[in-house]
Every structure is written in structure tokens, then in C-alpha cells.
Amino acid sequence: MSSSAKPRVAVVGLGSMGYGMATSLKRxxxxxxxxxxxxxxxxxxxxxxxKGAKTPAEAAKDVGxxxxxxxxAAQTEAILxxxxxxxxxxxxxxxxxxxxxxxxxxxxxLAKQLEATGRHYLDAPISGGAQRAAQGELxxxxxxxxxxxxxxxxxxxxxxxxxxxxxxxxxxxxxFKMINQLLAGVHIAAASEAIAFAAKQGLDIRxxxxxxxxxxxxxxxxxxxxxxxxxxxxxxRSAVEIFVKDLGIIQDMARSARFPVPVSAAAxxxxxxxxxxxxxxxxxxxxxxMYAQVTGTKLPGEKK
Length: 304
Description:
By secondary structure, the chain is α/β, with parallel strands linked by helices. Helices cover 53% and strands 12% of the residues.
């Protein structure tokens, strides 16, 4: 397939998710330039057949689509409007696809700022993990103008197994993602509490995993994260700090709305405690280790 008929794409942020998204786009026949604060990540992408750029502004030159895959709103704003940001070079009528999880109010503000310059902003948080990113099978929760969707669609189709079109303005995609993150954080905290409690009871936790995944108490997060605990492997697929951030955003949104969220507030405290214990950059299943450390419970791979 010739890439000449497809818009050129820049992917800013080549972490575990962004790298997979960039390779999915390349596999679909796009001309892709990668950019990251890590020169090693860019070099790896170039070695895999992509192009590299040192700054977002350089990456965005002459492209029709920029996909921003960074951690938070502050990084997204820096990529857009900071020094060497994409707004300096992005072509008129190009689209900026923002994949970071953020407060919907900030997504609306960034969209308004970019749209005032004649470019398009698609609020498009992602879900699915690094493996599905690499396979081009993400779930994308998108909202934005019809023009933004039209320009972004070729890239979205290459990156997503499921694309949800959730509204005609930025902020809706972000709000949907925050509901997902509320549940995801609560489910990880609950799964971690349950498996550590099972270990404290002296149960065979591999058998607990087998029984629960076939029972009503199962959740997607229990099934996905508890194998990390069973293997004593806390290399970060998704770090504890992600949920410190995201459940914190939930608290801010809820306080503004005068809406009580006591269960997610409790989950946030569990992630904060895990981070305070020195595991903030480890896998989010480390909440189970925190429970184990506090209670003197032995988990696989742990000294105590």
C-alpha cells in the first residue's frame, strides 16, 4: 500500500502506549515521525523503520495529524504551546489528537486555544494497554468537531479496534475516560486488597485466582493485574502514579460538582500509601505489596 495517499503523521510520546500506536500507524502504511524526550526511544523507532525528530515542532512540520501520547494535561499543553511546541509549525487545517487522560475542563480550554489558530483538536483518551496499542486494537473515547473527526479518522482506524464518537466538542471524551478510570482504580485497589487478604488467610493464591476468575467476584482488573502479584513481577505496565493522578482528578471533578465519591476516595488513599512506600513507579498491582507490607503478609517474590 502506498503511503503517499495517506496524511503524514507525527507521534509525540513514544512510551509503552505511544510506541505501539506509532508502530501500528507505520504498519498501516503511514509516513510516521516519532518524537520523545528520550533520545533512546526515538532511536529505537528509527531503527524500526520510522522517522525521528528532536522536538514536537520539528515532528509536526508538514504533517496532517499529530498524535500526542503523554501522561497528563501539563505535558499536553507544553507539546502544543510550549517552547518548540507543535503550534509553531503545524499546518493549517491539521488535527491534533490528544490521548492524555485529563480533566474535561482543561481539554475544552486546550481545544479552544488550538481551534482559534485554525487547526483542529480531537479529545481522544485511550484504553487497552501496551499490547493492544502495538496491535492497533485500542479503545479510543473521542469527541470533537466533525472536521476534527474527518481529518483524524484514517489514523484512528489504524490505532483502534473500537472508536467511540462521544460528542461534537472536546471534553466529552475526557469525561468518559474519567468514569473508566474511577472504576479501574477502584477495581485494582479491591483486587489487591482481596489477594493480599487471601494470602494472609494462608490460602493458595494461585488457586484463589483460578476460583475468582470463574466466579461472580471477578473483574477485568483482577484477571489482568493479579498475575503480576502471583509472579512477583512489578515491572510497570501501568504505574501506581497514574492512578494517584487520575483518582486525584476524579476527586477534583467531584468536589466541583458537589458529588460524593467515597469509594474512589478510599482507592486513592491506597495508591497514595503505595507511592509513599516507594513503589510509585512500579506496576499498579503494587497496592497488593503495600497491603502485604503493612500486615506482614508474604507474597511471591517478596522478602517478608
